[in-house]
Amino acid sequence: MPSTTSPSLTVLASPSRYVQGKGALDELGAHLAALGRNPLIVADDTVWGLFSQQVTDALAATDLPTTRVGFERFATPEAVDSLVDVIAAGGHDVIVGLGGGSTIDAAKASGHLARIRWASVPTAASSDAPTSSLAVIYTADGEFVEYRFFPRNPDLALIDTRVVANAPVRFLAAGIGDALATWLEARATRRGTADAMAGGRPTRAGTALAELSWDILWENALPALDAVAAHVVTPALEAVVEANTLLSGLGFESGGLAAAHAIHNGLTAAPQTHGLTHGQKVNIGSLAQLILEGAPTAEIEDFIAFTTQVGLPNTLTEIGLSPEDRDEIEAVAEAATVEGETIHAMPFPVTAGQVVDALIATEGISRRVRSERGLPAPELYTGGGH
């Protein structure tokens, strides 16, 4: 995690401009024109196939050229360096990450290295990456490598709720899983002595935004998922998109990460989990963090019931593991507790052994709660998506 020169400093970080709403993508050109005249769009083939015409038209409306470069699945060091080369060769002055969190992170990392401006344009509300001043770097196989921190946030974060409403429901559910962790981690960081991801102690604003995200999700997540299933934009969906993207983004960066995201990073070391989304793995981390904290039984049980309704995993079975997979779970726990991981922002010391016990405990607790509340039993995850 980043550190500050003074333990008394608090820091709040945010994008220069955040734009959200139905039809926002049609206004992309107008917002990019304020940042540069030669944008580079980074998007994978699937995303570009869906939105190339809309983006081209939006840029043409402000006399901006459309230059797009493809992207693979993960923001790897090689992918970032390759984008830097493309930026230099084309003389681009602003880079746009169009798509998912890894695409956006790669755009941020390469824009920083190339010393140009950058914009985040997510096509689903599946994570809080779009607003932050950091990127998560992975191997080509999806194993966590490092966080890269930048001295500023995106110049623009723009999300079209009509686009979100037509994305798969599981993407919104993943964003909810990522955002639910924000308050759990921010409150833990606030009780401890560690810095938040922005490089200083948590601000009250960052912590409050994290809690607001939590409150919005508990009130609106289920009707928002219904809206996406029907491909419509409703006030509930607008609220959840803001919670997943802006409030969670500001909340984690200026409120702090703790055990949930560290356990997510550890889970990437298990090949069985590579087909899962970021938010699905984070949700396992959130439940394990609640167990580590000794949270009230009612809070743990309500969290299990709610995330089951959302469609998020809360058992090892649902991420391709089992309590008997001791070697794999120990490897996850060791990776989650390495020096510098965010788990050390918890207000008490956490060992790998404690993480092992918490992860194993998730299985029995979740199965009991789901049975008692008449919720579906866990199904075995076998890879290739969830």
From TrEMBL:
EC number, UniProt record: 1.1.1.6
Alcohol dehydrogenase iron-type/glycerol dehydrogenase GldA domain ranges (all copies): 15-161
UniProt key word Metal-binding: yes
Top-level EC class as recorded in UniProt: oxidoreductase
Pathway in which the depicted protein is active: Polyol metabolism; glycerol fermentation; glycerone phosphate from glycerol (oxidative route): step 1/2
Pfam families from the UniProt entry: Fe-ADH
Organism field: Brachybacterium kimchii
Name of the molecule in the record: Glycerol dehydrogenase
Coiled coil regions, renumbered to chain: none
Keyword list, A-Z: Metal-binding, NAD, Oxidoreductase
Classification of source organism: Bacteria, Bacillati, Actinomycetota, Actinomycetes, Micrococcales
Catalytic reaction equation(s): glycerol + NAD(+) = dihydroxyacetone + NADH + H(+)
